[in-house]
Amino acid sequence: MLKAGSTIGIIGGGQLGRMLAMAAARLSFRTIILEPQADCPAAQTANRQIVAAYDDKAALAELVEACDVITYEFENVSIEAVQELAEKIGVYPPPAALEISQDRFTEKQFLNESGIATAPWRLVDDADMLVSALAALGGQGILKTRRFGYDGKGQVRLTPENSRGADKINAALKDIGHAPAILEGLMAFEREISVIAARSRNGEVALFDIAENVHKNGILDTSTVPANISAETAAAAQLAAEKLLHALDYVGVLGLEFFVMPDGTLIANEFAPRVHNSGHWTEAANPVSQFDQHIRAVAGLPLGDTTRHSDCRMVNLIGDDVLQVEAILAEPHAMLHLYGKAEARAGRKMGHVTYISPKKG
Ligand code: AMP
Hints:
Homodimer. Pathway: Purine metabolism; IMP biosynthesis via de novo pathway; 5-amino-1-(5-phospho-D-ribosyl)imidazole-4-carboxylate from 5-amino-1-(5-phospho-D-ribosyl)imidazole (N5-CAIR route): step 1/2. Pfam families: ATP-grasp, PurK_C, RS_preATP-grasp-like. By secondary structure, this protein is of the alpha+beta class. It has 12 helices and 17 strands. The protein folds into 3 domains: 85 residues, Rossmann fold, CATH 3.40.50; 65 residues, ATP-grasp fold, A domain (Dna Ligase, domain 1, 2-Layer Sandwich), CATH 3.30.1490.20; 168 residues, D-amino Acid Aminotransferase, Chain A, domain 1, CATH 3.30.470. Strands 9, 10, 11, 12, 13, 14, 15, 16 and 17 form a 9-stranded antiparallel beta sheet that branches. Strands 3-2-1-4 form a 4-stranded parallel beta sheet, sandwiched between helices. α1 packs across α11. The structure holds adenosine monophosphate (AMP).
């Protein structure tokens, strides 16, 4: 268990790191951010930033020297670097969870082996494999790169119209840069939900309520809690998250996303071994947020109560949405969180706002 004043290293300097650093400060922990971009969102709320690449050997050695424990705030950090760190210092979530989640193939395989249903999927390395995969999955699906995809990037939706014939098959592969991929069956889901789940160093589990998520252009737009799902579906989603945490021997917060089918059955889409955008509402609707919970877990502290006190709706502020800030500041029951990013580029997450109301659901 880390003592107050101890230092937590965070690899990655985005908004998730920013909010983790704020949560760490509330518990009297110091934070050091490793991030190549100077004055990144996380560095603005942390004690210190090491400005270097995530796999810079000297920077990683400096981080080990200066920290008591290390965590990370995004998935695309070098697994080799994280594994090397773990030989010298506690790294949470465990590198194995990161490694599995970095590749959609190992991720789907692990979910399936853990008894968690996913969309049917096939490996796609080349044109022949894509043709057979399409045939096996009913002539349509979503082609996704195995690695480095996020917010809908590295994906192509294939239908019989845009995938019949060698030219169209090759065009689809070109669209994803001919990267190793999987083809996933297209799920006619009714809604999307996620579970934000935490596991402590001694195996205790805490689950937040389920959020219902709406994506726009592949990017999360809103999360609403409670989700409009039955108690059985909610319980099944939480049970799956708990199973996954134990199977990964996990420490920290994890986000697990599902599609809810019209009959209420659940199809897991993916999990993220970190705090998650669809859990930002917890900072407004819970006494202990997902960020507090993650810091508690990595610091070896007991997890906090996840009982929600309010219903809520979190809205992401993407690109120019941030121009509405003045109006949002005047709105009742709105908790605004801005990420300290200077430039509002299209598609860039600039902040979020959570609207709360007395708990009914
Ligand atoms: P992902 O990057 O895998 O999270 O996918 C981004 C979004 O694309 C998801 O949140 C869904 O809205 C949609 N999507 C992904 N996979 C599928 C699928 N197999 N069937 C239908 N929609 C999907």
